[in-house]
Structures are given as structure tokens and as C-alpha cells.
């Protein structure tokens, strides 16, 4: 057995081969002031099928045996079809979750994004939501209907950089937020409340709230709240002198396992799902010692809670944040409305404790923080920024496509609702979209493997029946997932280049550029065509005929002006010079017109004009003694790129 020991937790894991079949946890008692919170113990027992998938979970809390949680899977695509008391049905774009008292029906668009959802408890339709998305797939408007009564429509608008700039809920002014950003994309104000950030993005002041940070830039004080963190950047304690003292405990995986609120209450959290070890499966509270079970769908979103024989329906918004909880009779137990940064604006019943909140993560609304991700990073919901960094930040690979995350380590990435639709590039996502649930269909002892990572799939230590097939599949799709990297092509036959060497430069024509689909031209070391291949079946020896006709032919390329750069075809110098003059005049006229427009409407211009120059610009359309010159610097010298032209006062 594997044992984990700490001051507050003792865990013993019994394995059968690579699979955990039993976990025994003993949580120590916790003392604060004159209050002692009793210890707790729990047993988790697991059963698996032939594909190493969990089929039953039996839980014993201090001698109290809970109803086993059982799972069933579709024999064709591997997706889960039964979990606990719920059945999962899928019919094209419609997905239904059927429970004993709860029914959830959702419809999705062609991008697999949810557009409508209906929730019924018994015979009562308790909630319905309709979602409208923009052309990029970002959430544009949300309309909730609760017990047949429509709520104010929630609308979102975005700026040119894709950042949320406004959130409105109806016509009320106190439900309208306008977000302002600086030139670096950092939040600088919400409505009229200004946010001051120091170098590195650490907070200094938000309206009248003063922030303090330590040498790492980690938040240690927000107003009269003081935060204590450990070396991993996890919040350990929050103190408000004279009124509040909240403490948190974590296990070896940075999962929160207990929360103490003064000498009033203690909540403990347990993680019993082997396939999703970061999800809270059970939790208890010292107030009544009842054991609560949280059931999630296949996407990791909570759908129900079971406590003392009662079933509660959980309804989340497009971000996955918990919005409503309904009782077994359909009564509204709890409603939570959040602002654009995750802070709670309205809570219908703050005394009803539920650990999940913003983004379906651990949420503590008392102190306004959310514990996010595997590193347990605390998010400040007052300003929507992380309070600390984690060790993984120092070891993370540079993300060249999102440099703002490297320059601002305290930034929260765009949430699910405000993110555009991204075309999947790995095998697992494509199979999921086609209705094939790869992790549950492949017999693997590592259910949390990264199926899109060749290092994981092809590693000899990984144990699954189709390892060779998936390793081969990864090499054949690397061209599409890393299109701009230097790697061997998965399209050309392997005999055309030696193994484990950098492949020669390969050029492809656009599939439709030759007038029909299915033909691929490849040229290796020269301009001549080496092979004509087909991406589909052709009859009558079409490919062999094309190969004989086009063999040793030359692919004609042109530059930006349509001139063929070939030694056999020489363009006159004056032709090229005339084309450059025409392009220059066109760019100059457009840039002057853009400056005039900026001065007239009062927006930021490309150049810092004086008052007299602005007057001249408005009346004449140009400013004397100024030239527009092409200054590419280290960029690609493309004349049509307006950003490479500058205003230069070289005359007068």
C-alpha cells in the first residue's frame, strides 16, 4: 500500500496492479481556541471493468455505508450512459440526463456549444435558459426563465481584443458593468471605480480598498482582510481582526480538504472519483455531520447533490458557475448572481453552504476568493485577478500565442463563455466531437493520460491495448497539430526520407487551387514536382497519368506584385518601380485619412500632433513638412502592412 502522512491527514491507497481498489483516509481533529472539531474517517472501494473503467464506488463514512455509485458505458463509443441514478441519452444535437426526479434536456449548435437547456424537477419545469452567441462563438446574451417567469436578459459586449467590456442584466443601473483596460490589456476600471496596478500587475488600490503585497507580488492584505499563504502560493488563512478567522487545509495534491470558520463550523471535502481526482465527490459540515454527494456529468459539471435521502438539482451557467439549486420538490433553495469578475452580487440564502461556485471551483464568498485549478491558485473576485503565482509558472513553457499570460502572471484567462470557438487540433477532441469517448473506449491503466501528447501515448511505460496504433496515429497527425514547426511530415510516404531526421522543406498547393479536390502536389529539394498524390480514391489510373504529365514540371510562384521571380522571365525595373509608387500613394492616402478621422472623433491617432497641426490636419487633410516613410525594422517588409509606415518630420 501507498501511505500519505501529514499533520491533518493519513491516507492509505491499496492497488491491484496500477489501479487503486481501496482508499482509506483518516482526518485528524482540529482545535481552535476552546473548540475541538472531531476527527473523521472514510473508505472508498472501487470496482473496474475489463477496460479499466470504474463501474462502482462504495463509500463508508465512519461506519455509515452509503448507497453504491454505479456506472455503465456504451459498448460502441465508450461514453458513460448511467451514473448513480442518472441515465445519459444523446440524439444528435440533443442531450438528455434522466434521473428519478430530475430531467435535464439541452440542445447544441453545429459547434457543439449549448444554446438551450431545460431543467425539470418532478412534473415542474423549474428553469430554462436560452443562449445567443456571436459569430466567434462567444456568449452574447443569456435569457433565464425560472418557474415560467422570465428574468432580465444578460448581455455581453467585447472589444477588438476579445475582452469583455460590458455586462448588463436588464435595465437596472446597479446591474450594469463597464470594464476599461489599459494598452497592455489589464483591467484599469469598472464603471467609475479605478484599479491601480504596480509593475508586474500587482494590485495597489481599488477605489478605496488598499492592497498590500509581499516580495513575490502575492497579495497579503485587501482592505482589512489579511491573507496568509504557504510556499506553494496557496491561501492558508484569512483574518479580519476582531470578526473573522478562516483557515484552509490541503493534501499532497493541493486539493482543499477542510475549511474552518472561527470556532463556529468546519467543512471537510473528499475526492472519491478516480477518473476525475480533482472533483469534490463528498463533503461534510460540523453543523449536522450529514454526508453530501455531488454528481457530475461527463464534462465535469455538477448536476445534482444528494444529502440525507434528498436530491437537489444544480443548474450552472455558460461558464460552469453554479447559479441555482432546487430542492426535491422543485422549490428554489439557492440563487447566486455574479458580476463580470466572479464576485457575488446577490445570494438568496448565504447560510446554505455549497462548496462549488464560480467556474464550478471551490468558492468562499465570505472572503471573496475562489480556489482554481490543480495548483489551488486563489482568485480575488473583487478585481478578477490571481493573488499569487505557483511553482508551475516558473517551469511553464513559453506560450507564444498568448504573450499576455507571460507578461502578466496574475491574469485570469478568458472563461469558457467569453472565449471564441477554437478548432480542435488533437485526436481526442476530434473523436469526442464525432461521438467517440476515447479515454473510456481504450483499455488504459492511465485514465488521465494526455491522449494528444505523443510523449504520453508512445511511452513504453504506458499500458493500453492500442498503444502502437495511437502512436502511429500521432505521427501521422503531427503535421496538422504543429503546422509551422520543423518535423517529419505525416503525409509523405516514409521511404522518401530517413527516419528520425528533420524532413526537407515541403510545399503544398491549396487543395482547391488546381480546380478540383483531392490532388496533392509535393516538391522536395527543388521547384520541380516530385510526386502527385491523392487524398481520395481515383479511378482509371488518374494519378499515374498526372504523374507522367506533370513529372518534373515547375510550380510557378509570384511575389506580392504578381511578378514571377524566375531567371527566365525578367520584369522591367520601371514596371516594378511603378507598382511600388502606386502602392505607396495608396497607403499614404489611407493613413492620412485615418489620422483625419481620429482627430475629428477624438480617438488616439498614430502620431502625437500638436494643436496647430491638428487644426491643419482637419482643414487640409495633411500636415506640411511631414512624410510617411516605410520602416519595417525587423518585421516582414510587406508594403500593404499599414503598421510598418511611420510619420516623419523630415522637411521644414
Automatic annotation (TrEMBL):
Domain Teneurin-like YD-shell: start-end pairs: 40-398
Annotated Gene3D superfamilies: RHS repeat-associated core (2.180.10.10)
Keywords: Disulfide bond, EGF-like domain, Repeat
Name used for this protein in its record: Tox-GHH domain-containing protein
GO terms under biological process: motor neuron axon guidance
Occurrences of domain Tox-GHH (ranges): 585-629
InterPro entries documented for this protein: TEN-like_YD-shell, Teneurin, Tox-GHH_dom
Classification lineage: Eukaryota, Metazoa, Ecdysozoa, Nematoda, Chromadorea
Pfam families associated with the record: TEN_YD-shell (PF25023), Tox-GHH (PF15636)
Cleaved signal peptide residues: none
Amino acid at each position: 500500500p501507498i501511505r500519505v502522512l501529514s499533520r491533518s491527514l493519513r491516507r492509505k491507497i491499496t492497488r491491484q496492479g496500477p489501479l487503486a481498489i481501496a482508499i482509506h483516509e483518516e482526518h485528524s481533529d482540529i482545535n481552535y481556541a476552546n473548540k475541538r472539531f472531531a476527527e473523521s474517517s472514510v473508505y472508498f472501494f472501487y470496482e473496474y471493468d475489463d477496460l479499466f473503467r470504474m463501474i462502482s464506488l462504495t463509500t463508508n463514512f465512519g461506519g455509515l455505508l452509503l448507497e453504491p455509485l454505479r456506472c455503465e458505458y456504451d459498448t460502441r463509443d465508450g461514453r458513460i450512459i448511467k451514473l448513480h441514478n442518472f441515465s445519459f441519452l444523446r440524439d444528435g444535437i440533443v442531450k438528455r440526463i434522466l434521473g428519478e426526479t430530475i430531467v435535464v434536456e439541452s440542445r447544441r449548435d453545429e459547434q457543439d456549444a449549448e444554446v438551450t437547456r431545460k431543467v425539470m424537477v418532478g412534473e415542474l419545469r423549474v428553469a430554462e435558459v436560452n443562449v445567443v452567441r456571436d459569430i466567434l462563438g462567444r456568449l452574447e446574451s443569456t435569457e433565464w426563465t425560472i418557474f415560467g417567469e422570465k428574468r432580465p436578459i444578460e448581455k455581453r459586449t467585447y472589444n477588438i481584443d476579445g475582452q469583455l467590456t460590458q455586462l448588463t442584466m436588464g435595465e437596472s443601473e446597479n446591474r450594469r458593468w463597464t470594464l476599461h483596460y489599459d494598452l497592455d490589456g489589464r483591467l484599469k476600471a469598472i464603471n467609475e471605480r479605478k484599479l491601480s496596478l504596480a509593475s508586474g500587475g500587482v494590485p495597489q488600490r481599488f477605489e478605496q480598498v488598499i492592497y498590500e503585497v509581499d516580495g513575490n507580488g502575492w497579495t497579503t492584505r485587501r482592505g482589512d482582510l489579511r491573507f496568509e499563504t504557504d510556499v506553494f502560493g496557496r491561501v492558508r488563512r484569512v483574518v479580519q481582526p476582531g470578526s473573522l478567522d478562516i483557515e484552509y487545509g490541503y493534501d499532497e495534491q493541493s486539493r482543499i480538504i477542510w475549511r474552518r470558520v472561527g470556532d463556529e463550523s468546519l467543512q471537510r471535502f473528499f475526492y472519491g472519483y478516480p477518473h476525475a481526482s480533482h472533483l469534490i465527490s463528498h463533503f461534510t459540515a460540523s453543523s449536522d455531520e450529514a454526508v453530501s454527494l455531488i454528481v457530475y456529468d461527463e464534462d465535469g459539471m455538477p448536476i445534482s447533490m444528494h444529502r440525507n435521502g434528498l436530491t437537489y438539482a444544480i443548474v450552472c451557467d455558460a461558464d460552469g458557475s453554479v447559479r441555482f439549486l432546487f430542492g426535491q420538490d422543485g422549490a428554489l433553495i439557492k440563487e447566486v448572481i455574479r458580476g463580470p469578475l466572479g464576485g457575488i452580487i446577490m445570494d438568496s440564502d448565504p447560510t446554505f453552504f455549497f462548496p462549488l461556485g464560480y467556474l464550478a471551483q471551490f468558492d468562499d464568498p465570505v472572503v471573496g476568493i475562489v480556489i482554481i485549478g490543480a495548483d489551488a491558485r486563489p482568485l480575488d473576485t473583487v478585481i478578477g485577478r490571481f493573488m499569487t503565482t505557483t511553482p508551475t509558472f516558473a517551469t511553464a513553457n513559453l506560450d507564444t500565442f498568448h504573450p499576455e499570460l507571460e507578461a502578466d502572471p496574475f491574469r485570469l484567462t478568458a472563461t469558457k463563455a467569453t472565449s471564441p470557438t477554437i478548432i480542435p487540433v488533437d485526436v481526442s477532441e476530434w473523436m469526442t466531437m464525432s461521438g467517440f469517448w476515447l479515454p473510456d473506449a481504450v483499455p488504459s491503466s492511465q485514465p488521465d493520460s494526455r491522449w494528444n501528447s505523443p510523449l504520453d501515448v508512445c511511452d513504453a511505460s504506458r499500458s493500453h491495448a492500442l498503444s502502437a496504433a495511437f502512436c502511429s496515429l500521432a505521427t501521422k497527425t503531427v503535421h496538422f497539430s504543429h503546422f509551422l514547426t520543423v518535423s517529419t511530415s505525416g503525409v509523405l510516404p516514409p521511404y522518401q526520407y530517413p527516419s528520425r531526421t528533420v524532413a526537407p522543406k515541403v510545399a503544398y498547393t491549396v487543395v482547391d487551387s488546381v480546380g478540383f479536390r483531392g490532388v496533392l502536389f509535393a516538391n522536395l529539394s527543388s521547384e520541380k514536382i516530385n510526386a502527385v498524390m491523392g487524398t481520395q480514391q481515383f479511378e482509371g489510373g488518374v494519378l499515374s497519368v498526372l504523374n507522367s504529365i506533370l513529372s518534373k514540371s515547375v510550380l510557378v510562384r509570384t511575389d506580392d506584385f504578381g511578378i514571377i521571380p524566375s531567371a527566365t522571365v525578367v520584369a522591367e525595373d520601371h514596371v516594378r518601380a511603378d507598382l511600388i509608387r502606386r502602392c505607396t500613394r495608396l497607403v499614404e492616402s489611407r493613413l492620412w485619412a485615418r489620422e483625419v478621422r481620429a482627430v475629428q472623433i477624438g480617438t488616439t491617432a498614430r502620431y502625437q500632433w500638436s494643436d496647430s497641426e491638428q487644426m491643419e490636419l482637419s482643414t487640409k487633410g495633411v500636415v506640411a513638412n511631414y512624410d510617411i516613410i516605410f520602416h519595417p525594422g525587423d518585421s516582414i517588409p510587406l508594403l500593404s502592412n499599414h503598421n510598418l509606415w511611420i510619420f516623419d518630420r523630415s522637411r521644414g
